[in-house]
Amino acid sequence: MAGATVSPTPLLKDELDIVIPTIRNLDFLEMWRPFFQPYHLIIVQDGDPSKVIKVPEGFDYELHNRNDINRILGPKASCISFKDSACRCFGYMVSKKKYIYTIDDDCFVAKNPSGKDINALEQHIKNLLTPSTPFFFNTLYDPYREGADFVRGYPFSLREGAPTAVSHGLWLNIPDYDAPTQLVKPLERNTRYERSFAYKNLCFLFTELFIPKPLFVRYVDAVLTIPKGTLFPMCGMNLAFNRELIGPAMYFGLMGDGQPIGRYDDMWAGWCMKVICDHLGFGVKTGLPYIWHSKASNPFVNLKKEYKGIYWQEELIPFFQSVILPKDCTTVQKCYVEISKQVKAKLGKVDEYFNKLADAMVTWIEAWDEQNPSEGVVANVPAK
Hints:
- The chain has 384 residues and is an alpha/beta fold.
- The protein has one domain: Spore Coat Polysaccharide Biosynthesis Protein SpsA, Chain A, CATH 3.90.550.
- Helices cover 34% and strands 15% of the residues.
- It is built from 11 helices and 11 strands.
- Strands 1, 2, 3, 4, 5, 6, 9, 10 and 11 form a 9-stranded mixed sheet that branches.
- Helix 6 (197-208) links the parallel strand 7 and strand 8.
- It catalyses: UDP-beta-L-arabinofuranose = UDP-beta-L-arabinopyranose.
């Protein structure tokens, strides 16, 4: 691939799995071959299990469809969503590696402002292998990046940082919008280019004619830690995490077929994960790396999936902002089961769905522990 730069020895080659949910042939892997081929892929096939998914030659992979999920998990397979990208979390459960990178099949290799291909996986690994700073914000963003450091006034006692549990990457081209925003901004794109004077005049003309105008946002070369106590909308299309630290919390919920909601799977996982990271003293980074998001989903289909979530999120955010985990919750599993209890107690009155979801959260943890009996990292819960 022109412009691609690959490390001579791939980082974490034997310690990382790439998880991909899909319903189609994985031709997109050809673009990622220089970066992904050294790693093991876990492909989670959604939808009709009799459909044959083609994977380009030369990749080391395992492929699981719904029949495999039912066979491996038995009755506990009920916690894995069907006909929704939330099925990807099955790959997290059956992986035996320390780290996970997950990517959607409509995400391609992006280019940085100088025109070079971005090795997104390598940047995620760098994010995960360096500490985070959730307890005190550094105004130069990530102080562990080459060429950066802590600014004047940053407490020396906090400069060791916290273990990084999650690296949340961003995207160029098609933005990750909800359906209402897609409908009112159908031409908006993220690109690495600044707006030119001529283009500004063109946008002005569009505005005068009441035609929706595209907005181009510059590539931002930055990584920052999301502060403790701050929630964020996590997108699952370009995401990496330390499975040993936070894996059991990365449950993408009950979504899709048979459920009243979709497209909130990664959001749910992100809110649960962030509350647990804050409690256990782990960090979450966002920013680099970028991927190229190539396909905009249908906003009318999305609205049908999202409409209850758009309404419910006004209850969900205050709920997660108020969650308090007791000090004896020293593992991710204990934290997650405690959150499930609070979901049932406080959100069950919003809709019966949340009682079902709370039960599925417990089932997920039980299935996780069955598949990973030797895991369960005990953290030193920091003083509040």
